[in-house]
Fold each of these.
Amino acid sequence: MTYSELQQKLHAEGQEQVLRFWQELGAEERHALSDQLEHVDWDMLRLFDHPARKKGEIAPIEGLSLAEIVRDKKIYRRVGEEAIGAGKVAAVLLAGGQGTRLGSEAPKGAFDIGISHPVYIFECLIGNLLDVTERVGAYVPLFIMTSEKNDAETRRFLKEHGYFGYPAEYVRFFVQDMAPAVGLTGKLLLEEKGRLALSPNGNGGWYSSLARAGILREFPAVEWINVFAVDNVLQRIADPAFLGATILSGKMSGAKVVAKTEPHEKVGVLCLENGLPSVVEYYELSEEMANARGGDGALLYRYGVILNYLFRADKLKEIAERHIPVHVVGKKIPHLDESGAFVHPEEINGYKFETLILDMIGLMGSCLPYEVERCREFAPVKNRTGVDSVDSTRELLQFNGVIL
Ligand code: UTP
């Protein structure tokens, strides 16, 4: 694109401010910026002006309760362990996020939550996976999704720590895509005079990025993929009982869930939307729905998701080309101000465009909610202090016998 074509395009989109420092740029920087701008998804940016999609008809979803799982655990576990032993299971660690709430520049998995000695988040997760692989006597390929921002550092950190005892030949990395970020009025931001502020495009792009990286071809026996977040240090990965229950259910996906502690708890709730599995945010549930109870007295909308899902690989392939909705999410975005000074905001100052893994559940067509005990399997490190923080996670790790 020539400079005048670029100007015209940006004028039409109301985004000329990104050329503010053009006169100061060298040839290479100009080329890099126009290249970035040519790749901007303008339709996605226009979503900024549109209200969120209206939800369809919401209904409760049937799931497996703790008591039912305890009753049938032996059989679930046997089926799951057989699948792992036959190489049918892979795990995907979502580690492409920026962890802005935690406020650490390093990859979140490299965060040390120890007290008297280092205990890294990656160490906890890999330790949990090793519990299973050692018991079964077979390794589960571990695919780690990073972003451009933390890929090199994540690889370096894990290599330096010997993958915390996991065999390197079973570890693969892949990098997710980036998307431009905008300020509070929808204007594209710059992170350098010749570079747009880009951020990872959300955890919903994990399958397309994994497929593009070609990693699955190396493990052709894989039939099930367990996808999980980097920040829940207590979660069980490739949990044989969860696998067995999902396989035996005949459903295309499974989701680990915890029972809500009270009707208005701020968690995404698994339910049915127009007959398909879906996650609704706590504010999308009406007062009546939030409080509704079944004959047994339990909340009808009680299953909060904890970002630990199982997906059937053949179905993922089938839905790969389907459209996943884009969410506009308020975040703190480091950028250059009008004078060219770098700003590290303390408050939310703009929006990122993200696709979310929870939207894939509907595309899969069916999902088994599988209840787990919150104090045993859910300790997310999102913030420094308060709810879902380093403090609350330490308490829960200690409760589970981990020496910090
Ligand atoms: P969060 O929604 O907690 O986002 O991610 P985050 O970026 O880690 O943290 P904040 O909101 O900036 O504080 C949930 C999971 O999805 C991954 C994260 O690494 C985490 O495991 N994720 C998120 C990605 O892999 N890529 C993304 O673009 C966003």
Amino acid sequence: MDITNLPIRKINTLFSKKELKPSELYSQIFDNAANSEASLHAHLTLFEDENIKKAKESDSRFDSGTAESLLDGIPIAIKDNINIKGYKTTCSSKMLSNYTSPYDATVIKKLKESQTLFTGKTNLDEFAMGSSTENSAFGLTRNPWNTDFVPGGSSGGSAASVGARSSIAALGSDTGGSIRQPASFCGLVGFKPTYGTVSRYGLIAFASSLDQIGPITKTVDDSRIIFSAISGDDPRDATSIVNNQVDIPSGKSAKIGVIKELMEDGISDEAKNEVNKVTEILKSNGYEVKEISIPIIELAISIYYLIAPAECSANLARFDGVRYGLRVDGNTSYEMMENTRAEGFGKEVKRRILLGTYALSAGYYDEYYGKALQARKEMIDEFTKAFDEVDYLISPTTPTQAFKAGEKTSNPLEMYMSDLCTIPANLAGLPAISIPTGITNENLPLGVQVMSRALSDHSLLNFSEIIEKEIQFNQQPKGWV
Ligand code: GLN
């Protein structure tokens, strides 16, 4: 078996037993990248040379028995909206094409403390706005299972990189599904933790009340290992919280709800079948499974597309040609700003800024943004009620399998619909995970999503691991390793 297919714990054991060196794994990872990058374009930057020295240092730690972390020597790819000191952070935008970060994001600081090796920065939809990685100013990323198809988005580069084994795991960010949806499209595990458990310091903001960093991995345990390493309260992020986990049952006494509104029209039969397959297995193992209705989910996309653009219009106001990134001159400072923003931002980003500015403007605020906030509160209440009845909520991760590149680019509303199942967890701040469960007729993977109450991330991971073991997905795209 190829070593790049192995889960992190197993690799760590091989390192400890001196049967494999971190530097050997590292060079295998870059061989895989050399095989796949021209076809997939998962990365915007690859770091090989500068990290060979670090890989050798990792070799020495295992040689002398001083390696302490499970992530020591593990090659991890980072979405290019997360700052690593001394490297470019472009957010796949012309606006930041020459921006080099002067500091490390908190998650990067933590991974450095764990002696993780970074493999490179991965492609994304510009400023994480999109569901297909086609909104990148630097070219699209393709799905490692079939290059005619998109890898999902916005963390499509991270998912394609793990899928093609040009990294062992990757970090993504999830505002409305950008970790889970690409994970589902690429046959991987994607985990969005409880809002606030992972610091957003150093993640370039899209919609601050929804953004959350998390892992894209091959296994649930790999996600657990990375989550443990990157989570924790951070004084630099005012919305970060102490990661005081609550325990809920994951064994047979756990109660499971299937979300009624996410098993209706608009969801493909294939996606529903994956959910049914999982619930049948759970029932036959003695779990109680019932249908749960969360009626407000039908409004999730409308709520999200007011709140996310409103926050993005405020967050992206900082890109004004003065402080960061691109500057396009003009005769006055206003003209300079206008020229800079006209040239620096792509179409989707401009659409969101316009939408958000409109929703926040005097006279419309109460009618749009204010109403969306009320509906968001109602959604949180409906989830709280649902979790009085059940411990975990199951749904498809995505309404369909991956779609073809170009299929939805001319219809933004259709593109927005692909986030129907993932957005509710962001609006309610809940932990949610996508687990790969099956392969469609067109030989593309599909996943199932599980959600649980806030701060029950570890229980959610334990429960997901039970599903993972029962399903035995164990498949990978061919041709890259
Ligand atoms: N696809 C959604 C959007 O376009 C979610 C993106 C994300 O989670 N970053 O906003």
